[in-house]
Amino acid sequence: MFIINLHYIVPLEELDAHMTDHVKYLHKYYKQHVFVASGRKVPRTGGIILAVGKSKEEIDKIISEDPFHIHGLAEFTVTEFLTSQSHPELKDFLKTYA
After folding, report:
1. Could you give the strand order of the β-sheet that contains 46-51, starting from the edge strand earlier in sequence?
2. Is 17 within 8 Å of 67 (Cβ atoms)?
3. What is the CATH number of the domain that holds 54?
4. What pTM did the predictor assign?
5. Cβ atoms < 10 Å from Cβ of 88
6. Structural domain range at position 36
7. How far is CA 54 from CA 18, 19, 24, 67, 87, in A?
8. Which tens digit of pLDDT belongs to each residue from 49-84?
9. Helices (H), 1-98
10. Distance CA 25, CA 84 (A)
11. How many Cα atoms are found within 13 Å in the side-chain-facing hemisphere of 33?
12. How would you class 35 by CB atoms within 10 Å of its CB: exposed for 0-12, middle for 13-18, buried for 19 or more?
């Protein structure tokens, strides 16, 4: 599992101009069972995406499609971790798609 940490580096108005495309990107990878959860940080300085994938390289390739990455709107950090405990329904999801 991976934590994708976004840190916005442009004013929110510029970011919001690309939000519709960013949400389409998110939906694409939810449908492919790569993204598990996502949302804005509080305060709104960035976002977090939880993802499953076979490698960090695969996640990096997926990030390269994000409009926020393409347009240089955010910095991205990826942290891989091994899920040793999780909600039972998430365990089933991870067994199926990870």
Report:
1. 35-40, 46-51, 2-8, 74-80
2. no
3. 3.30.70.1060
4. 0.91
5. 7
6. 2-97
7. 28, 27, 23, 23, 21
8. 999 999 999 999 999 999 999 999 999 999 999 988
9. 12-16, 19-31, 56-63, 67-70, 88-97
10. 29
11. 9
12. buried
